[in-house]
Amino acid sequence: MIPTLAMANAGSPMMWFGILHSLILNSLIGIYESNYLEKREISNRMWLIIIGNYFSMFIGLYFIAPYFSSITGNIDFWGGNTRYGDYELNGFIFGMLASFVATLMLELPFYYLSVKEKTKRKIGAWKFIEANAISNTVMFLIYFIIVAGGSK
Questions:
Q1: 116 Rama class: left (phi>0) / alpha (psi -120 to 50) / beta
Q2: Distance of alpha carbon 128 from alpha carbon 48, whole angstroms
Q3: In this structure, is the dihedral angle defined by the CA atoms of residues 108, 113, 114 and 116, taken in order, positive or negative?
Q4: Relative orientation angle of helices 13-20 and 121-148, to the nearest 10 degrees
Q5: Contact 107, 55 (CB under 8 A)
Q6: What is the pTM of this model?
Q7: Residues with Cβ < 8 Å from 18, sequence gap 6 or more?
Q8: Angle at Cα 126 formed by Cα 122 and Cα 129, nearest 5°?
Q9: Alpha carbon 122 to chain centroid distance?
Q10: CA distances from 74 to 56, 77, 90, 91, 97 (A)
Q11: pLDDT score, position 49
């Protein structure tokens, strides 16, 4: 009989897409990146590429991006507490760019260990960066579409 405040928020679209990214999309990204390297004659162990993707996504999207986003004024990277129309887009972009740079550095050791022919490790590094840049650009655009409508 005592009234209580109940919030029926189901979470932000940014949060829900982040969960989908965490659970499913990283595997698909790893498969894509591995196949990209295979088509360029860089034999690799796909499972290491996938593990590298999960590792870098976890660090980049849950620590690096929110931290760098907050430096430029967006203290709610995931949009769970920000009203629609008040989301700081500059912070989002800065956070995602920092996350991309971190992703390259964090995934490089996994790429290096995944290459089967040691002589192709250095040659294939640029191909790895290409694959990573393509997949990160696609993910950035998806996240950008999600947040752009409700931003300042």
A1: alpha
A2: 13
A3: positive
A4: 150
A5: yes
A6: 0.81
A7: 61, 78
A8: 125
A9: 24
A10: 22, 6, 8, 5, 14
A11: 95
Nearest-Å Rg of the Cα atoms of the chain is 18
Return d(Cα 100, Cα 83) in angstroms, integer: 27
State yes or no: pLDDT of 58 exceeds 60.
yes
Residue tagged 């796909």 (tokens): 46
Q: Which has the closest alpha carbon to 76: 25, 48, 65, 137?
A: 65
User: Which residues are within 8 A (CB) of 131 and not within 5 positions of it... i.e. 6 or more apart?
Assistant: 32, 33, 36, 37
Examine the pLDDT at 59 and tell me if it is beyond 70. Answer: yes
- Amino acid, res. 46: M
Name residue 126's amino acid: W
